[in-house]
Write a structure and sequence with these properties.
9 helices, globular, TIM Barrel, five-stranded parallel sheet, alpha/beta, 272 residues
Length: 272
């Protein structure tokens, strides 16, 4: 991130006498003071689990830029042949917790909303689990269990609870579904129109350079960005080509980054 323009440079003392007149503690305090940073806006990067092919790259890139982001977890099959909430991912998620990232639920079986059903139920199509690929009806309590089951597994893996936020798979919702999540104690998080990275689209129809230019052109302060941790169907993966230049390009525009814990729409939820 760029330092604030117009910051005055330190001036050397004109003489030994004048140098002695300045307390040593004041000099050391001034030298230790961090550079001021001018933020023209805040971008909220969010990452949904997927094939996890980009998991390490994402973690390394965020760490290098000292950025905290938000992750939404479902128990999805990964390129390792395991699942993203298996014990084999414990160290990965523990590290993200230690780094201060926010982490929410994406429903355990990646249950995509299909429609409102009868008797106050909703119809979903899980991507994983015993009902993978089938449409099933869930009560409010059963859907809450889909959200909370991620939290239960996360505690087993890391010893920590999720943040009280969730994201409906594919972003598909209805007023009834949102009420179910709210009744379960979780605030729903979508993404901004400009925040759709396009990483789940066909790479031949939507090349990485086109998607990057669009993001850098359209993103504004306050936007929530959706990125996946690997998409099985995309031939030319988005993250290796675009994540670093996206962050660097936004930093050059004096944008800062934060987790959804700092987003004005969710502050009250985290203060509870």
């Amino acid at each position: 991130m760029a330092a604030a323009p117009g910051a005055a440079a330190a001036v050397a003392p004109a003489s030994a006498a004048s140098a002695a007149a300045v307390p040593a503690s004041a000099v050391s305090a001034s030298a230790a003071a961090p550079k001021r940073v001018l933020c023209k806006g805040t971008i909220y990067l969010t990452f949904d689990t997927g094939s996890q092919s980009q998991a390490e790259l994402i973690a390394d890139t965020l760490s290098r830029h000292k950025i905290k982001a938000t992750f939404f977890l479902a128990n999805e099959k990964t390129v390792r042949g395991d699942y993203s909430l298996d014990p084999s991912w414990s160290a990965y998620w523990k590290a993200r917790v230690a780094e201060g990232h926010a982490i929410g639920s994406h429903t355990f079986d990646h249950a995509v909303y299909a429609k409102d059903g009868a008797d106050g139920k909703i119809v979903v199509k899980p991507g994983f689990g015993d009902s993978a690929g089938k449409q099933i009806s869930l009560t409010s309590k059963q859907y809450c269990e889909q959200i909370q089951r991620v939290d239960q597994r996360f505690v087993e893996l890391t010893g920590k609870h999720l943040d009280p936020i969730w994201r409906a798979p594919a972003g598909r919702t209805s007023p009834r579904l949102l009420e179910m999540g709210q009744a379960c104690g979780y605030a729903h998080v979508g993404w901004s129109p400009a925040g759709f990275s396009g990483d789940e689209l066909s790479s031949s129809a939507y090349p990485n350079d086109v998607l990057l230019k669009k993001s850098l052109r359209d993103l504004r302060g306050g936007d929530i960005v959706l990125i996946h941790m690997g998409i099985w169907s995309r031939k030319d993966a988005w993250a290796p080509a675009n994540l670093e230049p996206l962050i660097s390009g936004l930093e050059q525009k004096d944008m800062c980054f934060a987790t959804l814990r700092e987003h004005p729409d969710y502050l009250s939820k985290f203060k509870k």
